[in-house]
């Protein structure tokens, strides 16, 4: 791809680093920004910088937040004894969109994956385990990807919590094997939450 401007090429190269953005799409986005009013582009870039610099992780659930505690964890209307364990923030958004869950969340920040060098020590397990063992929870719902890595992560949590007295459940298998939570349609995901089953009946899950 030949460019008449090094500045344009640099912008395209950076945009092409974004997931799902190829160089042709990156060029289209760069040219779009170039043709927009300067004030509009400044607002766009400022919002990105503010997000990067000021966004926080909720001290309770590890979800992204504007403050020390996210709106979900700080809400008195939520059931704080029921925690839904998810891989990342995108899964929180997907489940919230169903309107079928009234508890709070625990964001692991990934799943166990020996092939990719992701061990339990690198994920956010400790607060969940400590809260469960201290009697602060009544149910932990596993809403993890239906993959080998997701199953491995679920089994790890099961082994840590099996003697805690906390009810451990898993969302129903309405989600296809190998699917990520974020890509599941709202109706299917909502039913999977409502029809969750005890973990022990899922075999290795």
Descriptive notes:
The protein has 205 residues and is of the alpha/beta class. The protein has two domains: 6-54, RecR Domain 1 (Helicase, Ruva Protein, domain 3), CATH 1.10.8; 77-202, Dna Topoisomerase Vi A Subunit, Chain: A, domain 2, CATH 3.40.1360.10. It is built from eight helices and seven strands. It has helices spanning 6-15, 23-35, 38-54, 71-74, 89-98, 126-133, 148-161, 186-194, and strands at 56-57, 64-65, 79-86, 103-107, 139-142, 167-170, 197-198. A five-stranded mixed β-sheet has the order 4-3-5-6-7. A two-stranded antiparallel ribbon has the order 1-2. Strand 3 (79-86), helix 5 and strand 4 (103-107) form a beta-alpha-beta unit. Helix 1 (6-15) packs across helix 2 and helix 5 crosses helix 8 (186-194). Residues 201-205 have low confidence and may be disordered.
CATH topology of the largest domain: Dna Topoisomerase Vi A Subunit, Chain: A, domain 2
Strand arrangement across the biggest beta sheet: 4-3-5-6-7
Mean pLDDT: 88
Helix content: 40-55%
Structural classification: alpha/beta
Number of strands: 7
The total of helices stands at: 8
Which runs of at least 5 residues are low in confidence (pLDDT < 50)?
201-205
So what's the CATH class of the largest domain?
A: Alpha Beta
Q: Which strand-content bin applies to the residues? A: 5-15%
Q: Calculate the terminal CA-CA distance, rounded to whole Å.
A: 48 Å
Give me the CATH architecture of the largest domain, please: 3-Layer(aba) Sandwich
Question: How would the global form be characterised?
Answer: elongated
